[in-house]
Amino acid sequence: MPYSLRDKRVLIVGSGSDIAAALVTDLLREGARVTLAGRNIEKTASATKALGDAVRPLSLDLSDEESIRAAADQVRAAGGLDHLVSVATERANGPVASLERGALHAAFDAKVVGPILLAKHFARLIAEEGSLLFFSGLAAWRPSPGLAAMAATNGSVSTLASALAVELAPTRVNALSPGVIDTSNWDVVAADKQELFRQVAASAPARRVGDPSDVSAAARALLVNPYINGETLHVDGGARWS
Ligand SMILES: NC(=O)c1ccc[n+]([C@@H]2O[C@H](COP(=O)([O-])OP(=O)(O)OC[C@H]3O[C@@H](n4cnc5c(N)ncnc54)[C@H](OP(=O)(O)O)[C@@H]3O)[C@@H](O)[C@H]2O)c1
Is residue 47 one of the residues assigned to a domain? Predict the structure, then answer.
């Protein structure tokens, strides 16, 4: 059936993410076969267990090419893949004068170098009409002080998606750029999450922050539509224009 993910094999990288959890839940509901990958296999196994017995855990660290190669070998042995999604991120936030090289490298590994290596090792395992999907973010499109590294990594994701779409054709490659989404990472990142959400909701044209289900629905559209390619889909309630 066209535009269906039933029985499609989907690998999602970034096992601790609430957005990944929402996507896994929606994909399972639709009958997809989901593997969830993370750099810490114990954490990943417990995340998959929480999402249901059907989800397979896989060890994969985007900062370690050998782990990416080993994960690809396992996927090849299991028969390949229809879609690969990476939601992974590492934040290197703060005034540019305070940024540490190690944190910058981790941020670029998660969003730029890692996705390039995913393409290197997984693209040949993707079935006809399959795709790669990488996660960008609003910081690239609406820069603010303290988020220079995040702007650079997220902007690179978008550029990478269109470049890879050309190089890996006919495998499709897209990017998704969320705005502020109500996820647990804001408990750590924001000094006052509720106040931040209130301010975002007041200024965003959608008049609310996003929900992981908003992002999951958009990710699904990018996976199933065989004519969306090299695109960056913004799921930010119009926040780029506020
Ligand atoms: N939430 C938002 O409001 C928002 C806004 C704009 C953009 N986005 C984008 O949407 C995506 C998902 O966001 P989120 O908030 O749900 O993410 P999150 O909670 O921060 O989770 C990110 C995940 O990436 C994993 N990761 C980091 N480095 C990795 C590596 N080297 N190898 C493998 N995994 C690695 C982390 O693993 P561990 O669990 O091991 O730490 C974590 O599970 C991200 O790309 C983010 O930039 C989100």
Answer: yes
| Centroid of ligand 1 to alpha carbon of 231 (angstroms) | 20
Question: What's the domain count of the chain?
Answer: 1
Count of positions (residues) in the chain:
242
Count CB-CB contacts under 10 A for residue 136. Answer: 26
Kindly state whether residue 72 falls inside one of the protein's structural domains.
Answer: yes
| CATH code (residue 133) | 3.40.50.720
Q: What is the pLDDT along the chain (242 residues), one digit of tens a residue?
A: 679 999 999 999 999 999 999 999 999 999 999 999 999 999 999 999 999 999 999 999 999 999 999 999 999 999 999 999 999 999 999 999 999 999 999 999 999 999 999 999 999 999 999 999 999 999 999 999 999 999 999 999 999 999 999 999 999 999 999 999 999 999 998 999 999 999 999 999 999 999 999 999 999 999 999 999 999 999 999 999 98
Instruction: Tell me, yes or no, if the pTM score tops 0.85.
Output: yes
Q: Ligand 1 centroid vs 41 CA: distance in angstroms?
A: 16
* Alpha carbon nearest to ligand 1 atom 19, residue: 17
Atom 21, ligand 1: which residue's CA is nearest? Answer: 17
- The 3-state secondary structure of 40-56 reads CHHHHHHHHHHHCCCCE
Range of the domain at 170: 9-184+211-235
How many angstroms separate the CA atoms of 153 and 60, rounded?
20
